[in-house]
Specification:
This protein is an all-alpha fold. The chain is built from 3 helices and no strands.
């Protein structure tokens, strides 16, 4: 097993987290890391899908000029020009 350096502050946080969850530090770190990586994967996939949908909207002509949108936004919220 390769050792990964960890700051004393982060180690203290990990130990606290592990204790609160009734786990040893290695198990707690594995759980937290797995959750963070899963969140990042989902966020990435959602971003890719949003970009794909936006591209399809542009190709299909389902957009409007940015200036029109910004003018509407200013008028709706009372922003100065």
């Amino acid at each position: 097993m390769e050792m990964v350096p960890i700051s004393p502050e982060r180690k203290a946080q990990l130990d606290d987290y592990a204790q609160r969850h009734g786990q040893d530090a290695a198990t707690a770190l594995d759980d937290v890391l797995a959750e963070a990586l899963e969140w990042e994967r989902q966020d990435y996939n959602e971003t890719v899908e949003a970009v794909r949908e936006a591209y399809e909207d542009v190709k299909a002509g389902r957009t409007r000029p940015a200036a029109e949108f910004l003018d509407e936004l200013r008028a709706k919220n009372g922003f100065p020009r």
